[in-house]
Every structure is written in structure tokens, then in C-alpha cells.
Design a protein that fits this description.
The protein has about 80 residues and is of the alpha+beta class. It has 2 helices and 3 strands; from the N terminus they run βαβαβ. It has one domain. The radius of gyration is 16 Å and the shape is elongated.
């Protein structure tokens, strides 16, 4: 039913790929102009848990300098439309 995927990236190219894929999975498809209500079957199957990536705190960086470029992104699966 529900589930989450968490991805930690360390390079900008990796982060861009994850960001793009997460955005595609959690956004609405192209809709006809003037559509008053969005049908349930067109609702996204996933939602972003955090809009911006989670980055290491100053304390974490002091303890682990290699974490400097790390970014954490989380995507959550919504309830199935077919249940």
C-alpha cells in the first residue's frame, strides 16, 4: 500500500536525475485547458515528502566532511486507486 523510497546523492548529475524522476512521478500529467475537476485516475501515484533535499547539518559536517555534497530526497507512494 504505502511505501517510501529514500535516495542519497553525492553528485549534481545524480541529484538532477533523481529530482527529475521524483518530480515526474509526483506531478499531474498535462491536462486539457479549463478542466474544472481533476479525475481520480489522473491523480499522481506518489508525493514528495520534502520539497527541498535534506542536506547535512553543521554538526554532521564537522564529524564527517565527506557528507558535504550529500542530498537526501524522499518519495512516498500514495494509496492505490484500485483498492
Amino acid at each position: 500500500p504505502h511505501g517510501r523510497i529514500s535516495v542519497i546523492t553525492f553528485q549534481s548529475l545524480e541529484d538532477r536525475l533523481v529530482k527529475t524522476m521524483f518530480r515526474e512521478q509526483s506531478s499531474l500529467p498535462e491536462l486539457p485547458h479549463g478542466l474544472p475537476v481533476i479525475p481520480d485516475q489522473m491523480q499522481p501515484d506518489y508525493k514528495l515528502v520534502n520539497r527541498k533535499p535534506i542536506v547535512p547539518s553543521d554538526d554532521e559536517l564537522a564529524a564527517n566532511h565527506r557528507a558535504h555534497s550529500a542530498k537526501l530526497r524522499i518519495l512516498e507512494k500514495l494509496a492505490s486507486k484500485h483498492s
